[in-house]
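Pilot study result, target chain (260 residues):
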Amino acid sequence: MFWLKKIISQLFMPVPLTVLILLVAMVLLRNRKLVRSLLSLAIVLLVFLSSTPGSNLLSSPLENKYSVNSNAIPKGCLVMVLGSGHDESVSGTAVQKLSSTALARLSEGIRQYHLGSDCKLVVSGWSGGEGTLSHAEVMAEAAIELGIDNERIIRFPLARDTIEEAEFLKWEIGNYPFRLVTSASHMPRSMAIFQNIGLAPQAAPTDFMTRQGRWWRLDAENLWSSQRAIHEYLGRLWFKIKYENDGTMNNASTPARESY
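Predicted structure:
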């Protein structure tokens, strides 16, 4: 089910969807009217999704829900940074192996860490089924390189997605309050998942994609922003259908710890 979800969602991403429409048009070459319609649809999609107004229209509703969090954290704080990929083939330090999204999240996580005292930093993510190192371990090594004490880091190396990250944290801390760090576009879905399981997250978004730009400019950065936004809308829909409506994530209760 995990891989089926990933494969189906990829078909709705901008580039695969545009390519799929073009392939269908090629198969149906004899039906010129339908082919023209499909080609027009592919062009409109590509222009819209790669434009600044189009990408902002998709991303801004997600990113505007939670603002940057600079509130001080009480003593005994916990900061969880959600994972977002790394590349083991890159030579150099762990920081250099992180994806740009992962690095943005970790940087904000460390900033949140320093807003409190006696804090612990939680990092998560599996190897992706291909690498030898879990993403949690690379994130932890990067955090150590950036000045965080190894003893203050908690790792969840088996969590494959946000739902599993929430489940692992539930087992670890119960309903103890914590600061949740992830990309601004990912934050609404993350908050819904963590709250649905009975946790008490405080949103700390980062990695904002919505930007001012020339309306006529078409580029890959806008296309990437659109892709991430579409991924979030599909993820939110999947979560509503599979978990939120039947409450299957929130069946078990875990006692809260007095401090962390």
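One observation from the pilot: The chain is about 50% helix and 10% strand. A full batch analysis is planned for the follow-on phase.
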